[in-house]
Design brief:
The chain is of the alpha+beta class. The protein has one domain. Helix content is about 50%, strand content about 15%. A three-stranded antiparallel beta sheet has the order 1-3-2. The longest helix has 16 residues. It starts with a strand and ends in a 12-residue tail after the last helix.
Length: about 70
Amino acid sequence: MAYRVKEAAEVLSISRSRFYELVAAGEILTLKEGARTLVRRRELEAYLDRLEAAATRPERMQSRPSRP
């Protein structure tokens, strides 16, 4: 299954402008079919999976000062 840009942006709850920013940054891959730009559902799912992984990644522990 594939979505048009407007539909894909709606699925992600982002603006079309933000969607195109993500495409330009290489975060979301698109397909061209004539004049239409399409995005596979699995591409949107992969993007969301990467967001989730980044959000749940443990932060680096800050170094504690050494004791005298």
